[in-house]
Amino acid sequence: MAIALSQLIAETDQLLDAARFNDYCPNGLQVEGRPYVSKIVSGVTASQALVDAAIEAEADVLLVHHGYFWKGENPCVTGMKQRRLKALLDNDISLVAYHLPLDVHAELGNNVQLAKRLGWSIEGGLEADNPRSVGLVGAPAQVQTPQELAAQLALALGREPLLIAGSQPVRRLAWCTGAAQGYIDKALAAGVDAFITGEVSEPTVHFARENDITFIAAGHHATERYGVQALGEYLARHFAIAHEFIDCANPV
């Protein structure tokens, strides 16, 4: 069975409320391919490796969290960008990307999906005054030491996280997938015992130590594998088309 590309995009844009986000990149259809879709390949980032894998898998659409055309980047279509775009266009594959809309979605979003895999309950947004808060606040299934929390993440994500352990057991925690280490001050203000994100910066370590809050950098790629998978699976069910998630490993 196949679905019109235009219908797929229109319904996905509406599902994720994409038009309401002021994002760092365009959301939705970024590169237009063939007009009908019978198979979606999803992945985290539209790297050359993922584009090549989508071609090999005979995808009609490549669905990603990290697409192209970021604010501030060189707009010239040369080098790496030319090779990626040429591969998509030569093979008539559409590139569809959702960044912030996929981070915050209440069912399919990266942060909700990460919580489901870890068994965390969700209390509310990390930014209490922001109805579109990217980060979330909640609690683990049971009180844990920082080391136990880090071990749980390592097992679930298949990646050893960076742990800056505080002195308190983890009863409440905050998290924000990707590169959200700058939100650690919001986590402290929320009164949680631990903050989990994907990446770390040099000042983050000092902030965590001096404020006695557990900080865990569990990997940008690793924490953002699940939203795009959930979206791809949803679209496959909704439109009765095929979907395959392809994980191109990234240590960051």
UniProtKB/TrEMBL annotation:
GO molecular function, one term: metal ion binding
GO cellular component: cytoplasm
Binding site for a divalent metal cation: 65-66, 103, 220, 224
Keywords in alphabetical order: Metal-binding
SUPFAM superfamilies cross-referenced by the UniProt entry: NIF3 (NGG1p interacting factor 3)-like
Family annotation (InterPro entries): DUF34/NIF3, DUF34/NIF3_sf
PANTHER family, alphabetized: GTP CYCLOHYDROLASE 1 TYPE 2 HOMOLOG, NGG1 INTERACTING FACTOR 3
Family according to the record: Belongs to the GTP cyclohydrolase I type 2/NIF3 family.
Name of the protein in question: GTP cyclohydrolase 1 type 2 homolog
Organism of provenance: Atopomonas hussainii
